[in-house]
């Protein structure tokens, strides 16, 4: 009989982003009834948009020995959710009588796991997640003298800009890729 997988102890997998990620995977593993790894492996290869995951990779993910690529983690999550008869894109805690229910948290199982996966890769605690960078300011267009005495605005690195820019619907900036001759 195969040995039952257990969540690694804090001595093996200390508190932090990796433990949070593995604990979320274990939550789904336990709720699926702790299925044998060959059964999970077989299911990952037969689901829609299948991404076959080996039982060794599944074991290593559940033991916190690897983080793997997102398609592998996602395939494992989808297989475990299918065994629970649960939609991975459904609300993480769908029942109001569940003590984990938070009506202000519309996060799905997949979104939550992906956030934990990213935090694990980046080595970040959940409250240390980086904010998106601010948008770079757009520099103002430079005014230069046109090729036939006109005044036109051209990017400094456009070697073909000799006169008024040719407006083309395919070019959002309004410059043609064609040379002026």
Could you provide a short overview of the structure?
The chain has 181 residues and is mostly helical. It folds into two domains: 17-128; 141-181, no CATH class.
Distance between the termini: 79 Å
Instruction: Name the helicity range.
Output: 25-40%
Q: Indicate the overall shape.
A: elongated
Low-confidence stretches: none
Biggest sheet: strand arrangement: 1-2
Radius of gyration of CA atoms, rounded to a whole number: 26 Å
Main sheet characteristics:
2 strands, antiparallel
Structural class: mainly alpha
Instruction: Look at the structure and give the mean pLDDT.
Output: 76
Number of helices: 5
Strand content: under 5%
| Multimeric state | single chain
Element order, helices and strands? HHHHHEE
Domain count: 2
Tell me the total number of β-strands.
2
Describe the structure.
With 181 residues, this protein is mainly alpha-helical. The chain has two domains: 17-128; 141-181, no CATH class. 34% of the residues lie in helices and 3% in strands. The protein has five helices and two strands; from the N terminus they run H-H-H-H-H-E-E. A two-stranded antiparallel ribbon has the order 1-2. Strand 1 (143-145) and strand 2 (151-153) form a beta hairpin. Helix 4 packs antiparallel against helix 5 (109-122). The mean pLDDT is 76.
């Amino acid at each position: 009989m195969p040995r039952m997988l257990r969540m690694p102890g804090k001595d093996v997998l200390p508190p932090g982003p990796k433990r949070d990620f593995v604990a979320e995977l274990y939550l789904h593993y336990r709720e699926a009834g702790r299925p044998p790894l060959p059964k999970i492996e077989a299911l990952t290869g037969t689901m829609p948009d299948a991404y076959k995951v080996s039982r060794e990779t599944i074991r290593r993910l559940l033991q916190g020995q690897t983080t793997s690529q997102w398609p592998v983690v996602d395939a494992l999550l989808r297989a475990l959710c299918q065994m629970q008869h649960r939609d991975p894109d459904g609300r993480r805690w769908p029942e109001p009588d569940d003590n984990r229910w938070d009506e202000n948290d519309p996060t799905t199982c997949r979104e939550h796991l992906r956030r934990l996966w990213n935090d694990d890769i980046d080595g970040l605690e959940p409250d240390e997640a980086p904010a998106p960078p601010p948008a770079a300011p757009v520099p103002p267009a430079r005014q230069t003298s046109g090729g036939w005495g006109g005044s036109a605005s051209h990017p400094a690195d456009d070697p073909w800009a000799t006169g008024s820019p040719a407006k083309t619907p395919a070019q959002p900036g309004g410059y043609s890729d064609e040379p002026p001759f």
